[in-house]
Structure formats: C-alpha cells, structure tokens
Amino acid sequence: MAKRDYYETLGIRKGADAAEIKKAYRQKAKELHPDRNTDNPKAEDQFKEANEAYEVLKDADKKAAYDRYGHAAFEGGMGGGARRPGGAQGNADFASAFSDVFDDLFGDFMGGQRGGAGGGARSRATRGNDLRYNLRIKLEDAFAGLQKTVNVPAAVACGNCKGTGADDGSEPVTCPTCSGMGKVRAQQGFFTVERACPTCNGMGQTIKNPCHVCRGAGRVEKEKALSVNIPAGVETGTRIRLAGEGESGMRGGPAGDLYIFIEVADHPLFERDGNNLFCRVPVSIAAAALGGEIEVPTIDGGRSRVKIPEGSQSGRQMRLRSKGMPALRGGGPGDMFIELSVETPVNLTPRQREILKEFDTLSKDNNPHGSSFFKTVKGFWDQMKG
Ligand SMILES: [Zn+2]
Ligand SMILES: [Zn+2]
C-alpha cells in the first residue's frame, strides 16, 4: 500500500506553515486518540499515521526534505526520518509528538507526574510527595557533625497489591469520564475551564476492585527509621536532601524526596555569624585596666587562654584563629572572637567606696573617651552660641 501524503494525512494543503500543521495535528490527535476510540480498531493506526506525519512536518529540516523529495527523503537508510510505527522506537516518537501537543492542550496531562523526564503518556503512576522533617540540633553538633536517627512518617508501597491499588490481580482501567486524561474541560461562556476529573481524581484510571488494605491508593502509612548523616558546619536553613526517602508513589510511581531542614539552637555562650563565633566575656574594671590573661571556652569543649591588653575598653575583640565553625562547603574554618564586656562593680562596701573615690580624685587623663567627648560637647555649644 502506498504511503499517504503527510499533508493529506493531516488534512491540510501542501506546504502549510507550522501553525497550521500543529493545529491540524492537534485536531487529529484529539479525534483519533485510542482512548476515545476503543470501538474503532482503525483509529489507532490512523492515529499513528497522523503522528508520523506530524513528527516529520513539525521539524523544519525534515519538512524541507519532505517537501522536496516526498517519502523518498526518508527511505533507504537516510536515518533520522520517519520510523515504522509500532516498534519501541515508534512508541517513543508517539509519546514525544503526542505530548508535544497535549502538554499545552491539557497542561500536565501526565496527571501531575513530576520528575521523570517524559514518562509514558499512558502511565498513571504518580510520584510521591516530598517530605519535610524539621531537625533542631545543638551548636556543638553543628560543629562536629552527627549521625541522627529520625523517624519519618512515610507512605510505603502497599504489600497486598504491590502498589497497584487493585485487589486480586484486577487491573486498573482507563477512566471513562476523562478517557484517561485525568482532567475534564467544561465550557463556561467564552472560556474553557479545566479541572481534575471528578471520577478518577485526576489519576486517569479507575479501579474496579480497589485493594482492601490501601483502599486503592497503592500505599499505606508507616513510620520508618532513617539514619541521617548531618555534616559538620550546617546552619539554620541548611537542607539535606535524601533522594527517594519521601512518600512512596501512587500505583508504582517513584518515591518523593525527604528534606531534612536544620535548625541550630541558640547557644548560651557562643553566637554564630556565618562560620565565625562570638563569645562575650565579662571582665572587671581592674582586669580591663591592668590587663592580664583570661581562660575562655571553645566550641570543641576545650579552653583557650587569651591575653587582655592593658587599658582594654568594653567591646574590644580578640581573635582566636580557626576556632570557629567548620565550613560546610570546603574552605577553612571560621574564627572565634572574644568580646570584652567591662563590668561596673555593684554592691560596694564602705571601704571599696572609699578606695574608688580616692582613685577618682587621682584620675585626670585616664578616661580617653570621656575627655574627647566633653571636648566635642564644648565645641558644639560654642558653635550654637555663635
Ligand atoms: Zn493495596
Ligand atoms: Zn477521570
């Protein structure tokens, strides 16, 4: 049997442009879709024929070759041309050309399936949801990293129906309401609205004998214990993705992912800024004025000695190199900063008051900030007067 002309197959004039071709194919695909023509055995072949024609005509290069040489352009091992429909190769083309048009016709026609590139046009499997698990850890654990067992509520494939959702080996059947599209369209005034099919809830399939264990969902709720490796250096907001550990898919679809959201709790001693740590250390007036050495804690549980220079003011920072948090993504660790907080003594005894008063009468140029402040104040008042 001679092969039909591609333009004729799609019912358009020779040399029609891309928009016309797409429009025509769209029409044919809708008309001939096998799900809608279960009683017409010829429909499937015609559908494949239209599909093959579209595969060629939608491609500018192939179309040019076809316009020039006709079917001969793709015969005799030219490669890359039309393939015999029906084989595995033909089916792949079928899916690609088909989804090409139906993607924009029906949105996510695959029933909300995400992840798998392409998928099968007839697959009703749905990917499982991603799960979020909030994990609060101590700063020390963020510093060292830890192995943590988390119990996540997860839906796992139903053992009774092996995830198909159908009981006793009965097969899910194409939904009669939406012809397997998972969506129905309705005319409302000038607008066509599209919504999930009410019969199959967007699955595109209905089950005659739903599995009595999972009620047709193909999965059951279960808790699973997962050992999670929290790397050193994580911070609040770090997400750890465990691929495939989320909810299992519907009817044999792939599982979602599990995301561990890290929250690092505040620490009573250390404040974190990126990879740096800050530790505020109170020191007495005398220690700040005279200088000396103090012992400070480090996040690894150890201690470090820090020299306080003579005459240190409140807020002075001293850096301890590489004593901060490790870097999560390569690079060296942060630093730790010791910030001095000079304390005013309280609850003075009469003797202490006496000494302090005496000290004050002896003080002249001992308060650098004070004297420069009052000099500036005096200048301000003089200028306002003038
Ligand atoms: Zn089941
Ligand atoms: Zn339906």
From TrEMBL:
Zinc finger motifs (CR-type), residue ranges: 145-223
Cofactor note: Binds 2 Zn(2+) ions per monomer.
PROSITE patterns: DNAJ_1, DNAJ_2, ZF_CR
Subcellular location(s) of the protein: Cytoplasm
GO CC list: cytoplasm
CXXCXGXG motif-type repeats, residues: 158-165, 175-182, 197-204, 211-218
Gene Ontology biological process terms in this record: DNA replication; protein refolding; response to heat
One Pfam family this sequence matches: DnaJ_C
Glycoprotein keyword on record: no
Keywords tagged on the record: Chaperone, Cytoplasm, DNA replication, Metal-binding, Repeat, Stress response, Zinc, Zinc-finger
Residues of the signal peptide: none
Family, per entry: Belongs to the DnaJ family.
Assembly, per entry: Homodimer.
Protein's name in the database: Chaperone protein DnaJ
Gene name of the encoded protein: dnaJ
